[in-house]
Amino acid sequence: MKYMMFVCTDAEPDPDPENRPDIDVWVSENDASGRRLQGSALAPESAATTVRVRQGQLLLSDGPFAETQEVIVGFDLLECADLDEAIEVARAHPMAREGRLELRPFAELER
């Protein structure tokens, strides 16, 4: 099952500096196992453009539309057997301690 893992900042990171995982090790291990299909850091939110259409009008704004302390800073596309495996993969990611990770399965669309 495929999961999108959004990597986000958090206003309250874990204050415990012990045993911080290394992102390069996490990437290497999950790439080698086939659980991480793709991933990347994103440019800062100041480089974002929000696109909306209302009553046929294109509305563009710079940066994220909502003011928030939590910002998406990257993503990873995961292939896991189930949610439990995806949680274990996310648990080992460094941003699980310094930020937050949102796991979302891809929808099964009927065609």
Automatic annotation (TrEMBL):
PANTHER family noted in UniProt: BLL7171 PROTEIN (PTHR35174:SF3), BLL7171 PROTEIN-RELATED (PTHR35174)
Family statement drawn from the similarity comment of this UniProt entry: Belongs to the YciI family.
Chain ranges of the YCII-related domain: 1-106
Lineage, top ranks: Bacteria, Bacillati, Actinomycetota, Actinomycetes, Streptosporangiales
Coiled coil: none
Organism encoding this protein: Actinomadura rudentiformis
Name used for this protein in its record: YCII-related domain-containing protein
Domain of life from the UniProt record: Bacteria
Listed InterPro entries: Dimeric_a/b-barrel (IPR011008), YCII (IPR005545)
